[in-house]
Amino acid sequence: xxxxxxxxxxxxxxxxxxxxxxxxxxxxxxxxxxxxxxxxxxxxxxxxxxxxxxxxxxxxxxxxxxxxxxxxxxxxxxxxxxxxxxxxxxxxxxxxxxxxxxxxxxxxxxxxxxxxxxxxxxxxxxxxxxxxxxxxxxxxxxxxxxxxxxxxxxxxxxxxxxxxxxxxxxxxxxxxxxxxxxxxxxxxxxxxxxxxxxxxxxxxxxxxxxxxxxxxxxxxxxxxxxxxxxxxxxxxxxxxxxxxxxxxxxxxxxxxxxxxxxxxxxxxxxxxxxxxxxxxxxxxxxxxxxxxxxxxxxxxxxxxxxxxxxxxxxxxxxxxxxxxxxxxxxxxxxxx
Length: 336
Hints:
alpha/beta; D-Maltodextrin-Binding Protein, domain 2; 19% strand
């Protein structure tokens, strides 16, 4: 049987509490517990976006001095990009990355994925870290209930396949190329002459092994981490898509943070953006692609982009220029 405290003990405890309240001094054990925040992404390290998110989670936890307890889950919490972002919108996960499926979840992002519209990293960074990025953040808060913490990218995408090198657009004819499950990716592949097969990344390696697809596309930075070299022979640096994406937080959860915590989340996010961009951009060269992939049995080439760009301008751009009128003009007008 538990021993109940005496009336004197209760009064003494009450007096102690009153003294604490009167002096506004709380004992150590009364301090608030850390706010736990989970970050979810489809892929773990050493995938480029995951490297930045792991850094971000650690930085937020350490710099908040115990106020935030942030954990990064790469490939363990949810295994589909759309499920991750639905969980963020619902508030079941605090922070998420739509990966390469950003335009599926946020159709406004599709304009950046239009083949050959973005022509350099400098151009993309100037756009996304400027007024256009600010407007997208405002739109996503209003329409989807999420706060953009930072934009980043998976670099320029290049085709890999197990049939032959791609040196001119006609080399894509008849090739079944996996495309991200967003219309703009499929339209890009089809406009250049390939046969787009939309599917999530989780299915790609198996599909290539079974001959469901002949290949797909990835930036240099993710060819080795995602082991695409195991199911492909040729890597052709066509740079046909710029892989813009973002990290978003449930808006209610963001608004529940203190102003100081919000500033920390945004400031560290801009640093994490830099981490991701450095990892991605530093390897997006023909020399590095050869260095990483040829020892693993692949052949690497870099075709002349001009005929690919001409096809995209004729077959792809007209429909997206109309769809993204206003935003399209701002992107085209951005010079570096």
